[in-house]
Amino acid sequence: MKLGPQSRSFWSALLCLVLGGTPSLADGPLSHRDDLSAQDKMKAAGVLQPPADFEAPETFEPMQGGAGTSRRRPNRDAFSHSNANLTFEEQHDFKVGNGLFKKLWTSSPSSTRASDGLGPLYNARSCQGCHLKDGRGRPPRPGEKAVSLFLRLSIPPQTEMQQNALANRDIQRVPEPTYGGQFQAFAVQGLSGEGRFDIEIEEIEVALNGGETAVLQKPHYRIRDLGFGPMHPETLISPRVAPPMIGLGLLQAIHPGDIEALADPDDLDEDGISGKVSRVKDTETGELTIGRFGWKATNPTIRTQTAGAFSGDIGISTPDRPDNYGDCTQAQTECRVMPHGEQSNLGISEAPDPVMELVTFYSENLAVPLRRDADDADVLRGKEIFHKTGCTACHQPKFVTSRDADNPAHRFQLIWPYTDLLLHDMGEGLADHRPVGDANGREWRTPPLWGIGLTETVNNHTRFLHDGRARNLLEAVLWHGGEAQEARDKVVQMQPDELRALITFLESL
Q1: What angle do CA 290, 388, 424 make, to 5 degrees?
Q2: Where are the alpha helices (DSSP H) in 322-436?
Q3: Under a CB-based contact definition with an 8 Å cutoff, are residues 241 and 221 in contact?
Q4: Which one of 217, 225, 331, 478 counts the least CB within 10 Å of its CB?
Q5: Quick one: residue 347, left, alpha or beta (phi over 0 = left, psi -120 to 50 = alpha)?
Q6: pLDDT the model gives residue 15
Q7: SS3 track for 132-181
Q8: In whole angstroms, what is the distance from residue 162 CA to residue 170 CA?
Q9: 393, 388, 409, 410: which is closest to 401 by C-alpha?
Q10: Residue 59 CA from chain centroid, whole number
Q11: Which pLDDT does position 117 carry in this prediction?
Q12: What is the pLDDT of residue 405?
């Protein structure tokens, strides 16, 4: 069902009523929020309280993305709708950005001069090529080439200069000297890709309460057919699938104080959870800021994430990342002499503004779908189990976004992303042993859960975690270790009906 202007006004008004509810916390809530008046703090604190019971949904709970929540029919386009509270002019920018997000880039020189500059090495020809239908990537099926899964590359620091650059956060990792920061299997005509990789599966059995056994699949990666000579002997490899795009602007609008308030790197409260903030350098100011995006929380803004994807995934330069050769290193001389697509009459880089601005705006405003079956008895029971098992220690259910968010559509919204945006030790089972930024080889950012139940509807698969190893939600839970080990062990000991209720709840998000 399409949400018209009157409906948008209704939901915006209803949210204000919810945020105007009577608070029941002590004086001085949300003292870390410098964007809110004292009255706003009391309002926000009232709606952020944990549920008192699980007999019914919380007020406004189905509207996961605040007033911008999409109420469209949950079909294959469920992740591709704009925030419902955008203005008419913003809807236009969103649609133009959508076209650029789907745009297929071509190699240079090309008759379509506004579309050339691909590569020379690349993983996909468009943003949509990895984020199919704005959703979640997956590992390649047998016989397929990997597109929405790629390998990150780096090496341990080799020199004092590199060690200092890492310590000062001038760089987040040291790229592999020949193959750069990302392994790219595709290349433009006249150039060979960097190689291929195979995935070998190790099966791990997990006995569940009730007599059933889950079989986990641990992937091992073997790179072959290298096109530019051998790799450094200490090369560190980390596979990544493309994450879903919904709600990114709302995550960006979460107040930094809320993220910092959830951090407990030294586990001072002794609850076994020691999430820490990822600190990265702002590329414009040079100041430290919070990393929110990416599997290791290495990017502070959606624009930074977008520029990195243009450069690393497609080989397209932008004003933020102006190297027209993308991830081609100086050692790949055949790549560095290929023609590029920058045109002086169009501005600096192959994708000058307003291309970057429009793709960023599009990425910031993909709506979160409406929750389904929030009042279902099994869903409510599963929600209670989710809370009592301790899952909310990392998957923080809700926030009220900043009054100072750049886009008014993102301001002072009650949202339900189920993430704290912090780095957590997830144990040896999920470790990639590859440090990047503030994240060590066992740490990952808590991924948002909103929309996770529509993965199969949108992307025709149910592959989860950073490398898509989990074939369903239960397997994703069973891979949890480290700080989540206690909660994971409780899941293993659940009665079958409790386990079904937990999964039913997750599928409703």
Answers
A1: 25
A2: 333-336, 355-364, 377-389
A3: no
A4: 225
A5: left
A6: 46
A7: HHHCCCCCCCCCCCCCCEEEEEEECCCCHHHHHHHHCCCCCCECECCCEC
A8: 9
A9: 410
A10: 27
A11: 93
A12: 98
Residue written as token pair 């009391």: 42
pLDDT digits over 455-494, tens only? 999 999 999 999 999 999 999 999 999 999 999 999 999 9
pLDDT for res 115: 85
CA atoms within 13 A on the CB side of 83: 31
With residue 474 as reference, give the H or E element that holds it.
helix 473-478
Query: Can you give the pLDDT at residue 28?
Result: 64
Residue ranges for the chain with pLDDT beneath 50 = 1-27
Distance set, CA 478 to CA 101, 391, 446, 452 (Å): 35, 13, 15, 16
- Looking up tokens 């809110």, which residue turns up? 36
**Percentage of residues in the chain having pLDDT higher than 70:** 94
Domain residues of the chain, as ranges? Answer: 5-86+254-263+365-508, 91-246+302-363
452 within 8 A of 508, measured Cβ to Cβ = no
pTM for the model stands at 0.93
pLDDT for 29 equals 87
**DSSP conformation class of 244:** P
Residue 356: closest CA among 284, 431, 303, 299:
303
Residue 5: per-residue pLDDT: 34
Residue-level pLDDT at 12: 43
> Residues with Cβ < 8 Å from 138, sequence gap 6 or more?
148, 149, 241, 459, 461, 463, 468
Please tell me what DSSP assigns to residue 114. G
Domain 5-86+254-263+365-508 has CATH 1.10.760: yes
Terminal alpha carbon distance of the chain? 19
Alpha helix positions (H), 20-114: 38-47, 88-102
Q: Look at residue 330 in the predicted model and tell me its pLDDT.
A: 97
